[in-house]
Specification:
By secondary structure, this protein is an alpha+beta fold. It has six helices and 23 strands. Strand 10 and strand 11 form a beta hairpin. The protein binds zinc ion.
């Protein structure tokens, strides 16, 4: 569906090569002759999870980021009123934390968000839904929920474009159908399922569709804990824990053992093993890691052209390090590589004790960068920064680290020591990441 007419307005939808909704334009005329007065542009990760929404109001553009599968939402990214919303669930109740503090999102039997309470359990707002997801306007409940986008059956309801994001597809509650056909026909024996635009085989009173691909009566069965497409819909467990992200092990990238002879420079070892006369040396933390780790520092590779973990390890050990100095390396495609054992003090900043080092592959200092050429991304505006998959992977990693070890703060290297690292093009992202571990 590329043209939609609702409430006397024409809306034009554009799809990308994967049939994801790429843009919605609000037109001043019909779809053939009208021009856009406002637009919303969406981008997604490789799994089709929405990462970014850019809103153009006719003159200016504001950006919203959705990170960790939507559990974190950054409004007006890089703008004057930047804000972070953080979602999680506990004992089956979804919660939201933002600048207004903790709020509870109460749901009806279909998981639709029907009321928002503050942390003292005062009612802030509530709304009810029509069977196909429209918001019911009646005299008993006349407030609408503005605290969150989550609404009908727990999906993100983008009221401003009159569509609901069902992950795989977008749905129009007033037209009672998806705006994209399903790529999967879930049940060949059910003729209703053959209508690839229909919603829950037209039985919205009893059925929901958490992924946009398959209707069900039980969202837990199709949204297992940890599935990033179903963030927060973990009704089955009492406390939703974040799964450890996938990490490429040292073995898999053929890392050298720490202290490998022949690699490490023989003279002027700057690190060496920890000992009474080498207190800054390579040292496994003596205590419980949850007590030891309290900080994360973000770095970039810079312009020295080493863009894989093995080359970085060889360079660093050649420079006298006992092992690669960083605990994690994150590629442009969002791959997370294991670096120095997390149980060993890093060698990447000062102070290193309790400090987890994360290295982003890339060069984020504005200006002419060799890395730009290397990645075929020469950027005339010098805006070369971390990629969305890279940020999203970092997000999942730091949330997991925070959950497991209780991280108190996250900084860019420049905030600790005299360096340009990780570059001015990376620091806005570092500041957002910092808000998530506080
Ligand atoms: Zn650094």
């Amino acid at each position: 569906m590329t043209c939609r007419y609702e409430d006397s307005v024409y809306w034009k939808q554009t799809y990308n090569a994967e049939n994801r909704l790429a843009m919605v334009e609000k037109l001043d005329g019909n779809c053939a002759a009208g021009s856009a007065v406002e637009s919303w542009t969406f981008s997604y990760d490789g799994n089709g999870v929405r990462l970014m929404e850019a809103y153009w109001d006719g003159s200016d553009t504001t950006t919203k980021l959705f990170l960790a599968g939507g559990a974190y939402e950054v409004g007006d990214f890089g703008g004057q009123s930047e804000s972070v919303k953080r979602y999680y669930s506990m004992a089956g109740v979804r919660m939201l934390r933002d600048e207004n503090g903790l709020q509870y999102l109460l749901t009806d039997h279909l998981g639709s968000v029907s009321a928002v309470l503050d942390s003292s359990e005062n009612l802030l707002s509530e709304q009810r839904y029509l069977p196909f997801g429209g918001v019911r306007e009646d005299s008993f409940v006349d407030d609408s929920i503005n605290e969150t986008d989550f609404g009908y059956t727990g999906q993100r309801n983008n009221t401003y474009i009159k569509l609901i994001d069902f992950n795989a597809r977008w749905y129009s509650p007033s037209l009672n159908r998806f705006v994209q056909p399903d790529t999967i026909i879930p049940d060949l024996t059910n003729p209703q399922a053959l209508n690839r635009y229909s919603y829950v085989v037209n039985n919205p009173i009893n059925l929901i569709d958490p992924t946009g691909h398959k209707f069900t009566t039980d969202d837990a069965s199709t949204c297992p804990p940890g599935d990033s497409k179903c963030w927060g819909w973990d009704k089955s467990s009492s406390i939703s824990k974040i799964d450890k992200p996938e990490i490429v092990s040292r073995e898999d990238w053929n890392a050298y053992e720490p202290g490998s002879t022949g690699l490490q420079a023989d003279t002027e070892k700057s690190e060496g093993l920890f000992g009474p006369d080498n207190e800054q040396g390579y040292m496994a933390y003596p205590g419980d890691l949850a007590d030891e780790l309290d900080q994360i520092t973000i770095h970039h590779v810079g312009d020295d052209q080493f863009y894989d973990p093995l080359s970085i390890q060889i360079r660093e050990m050649g420079g006298g390090f006992y092992d690669i100095g960083y605990h994690f390396i994150i590629g442009r495609d969002g791959t997370i590589y294991e670096g120095r054992d997390l149980g060993v003090r890093g060698y990447h900043a000062y102070p290193n004790s309790g400090n987890v080092g994360i290295l982003w592959l890339g060069d984020f200092v504005p200006g002419y960068d060799i890395s730009d050429k290397r990645y075929g991304q020469v950027d005339p505006d010098d805006n070369y920064g971390p990629t969305m998959p890279q940020i999203n992977a970092t997000m999942q990693l730091i949330i997991w680290l925070d959950q497991e070890y209780g991280i108190d703060d996250l900084v860019g290297h420049i905030e600790l020591n005299s360096t340009a690292c990780p570059g001015a093009n990376a620091m806005p992202y570092v500041h957002i990441l910092a808000e998530l571990v506080e």
